[in-house]
Specification:
The chain is built from 3 helices and 8 strands. It is an alpha+beta fold. A 5-stranded antiparallel beta sheet has the order 1-8-3-5-6, covered by helices on one side. It binds zinc ion (ZN). Zinc ion binds next to loops.
Length: 138
């Protein structure tokens, strides 16, 4: 069995953002040379997510509005976590949107449904954050 590991570094220009990382993951898969197996992609931070959904900007705005409704950033004082930090909302948003995705690898390609794409969801950005890609198979 082969195995391959790669980290991506992402630095968003705003506190919250969604980044399509599908091409970067496809690039890692190509680099790995693995034809059949599994590809794990996870955020290495507890204030960011990796998830699969539609590459449609309206939906991403809907995520933003929905997440702000259930875990509003402000006022920062509403959260017990915000003693030395101001990112309690980011931890909660990450919990809702998930830590990682696993995609089947078939014939050297990510075996997606028609509209599936991989996104990095940032909830406390403006600094370097890491994403792990681990691919196993043959
Ligand atoms: Zn925190």
């Amino acid at each position: 069995m082969k195995h391959f590991r790669k980290e991506l570094t992402i630095n968003t220009k705003s506190r919250r953002a969604y980044v399509n990382i599908t091409q970067a993951v496809e690039g890692a898969l190509k680099e790995s040379g693995i034809q059949e197996g599994l590809c794990l992609v996870n955020a290495m931070h507890i204030t960011a997510s990796v998830f699969i959904n539609d590459d449609e900007s309206g939906l991403h705005k809907d995520f933003e509005v929905w997440l702000e409704r259930i875990a509003p950033e402000k006022p920062h004082s509403q959260y017990r976590h915000n003693g030395y930090e101001d990112n309690a909302d980011a931890h909660l948003k990450r919990s809702v949107m998930g830590r990682e995705v696993v995609v089947a690898v078939t014939g050297g390609k990510l075996d997606f449904g028609t509209w599936e794409r991989i996104f990095y969801g940032e909830f406390d950005g403006l600094r370097n954050k890491r994403v792990l890609i681990k691919i196993i198979g043959e």
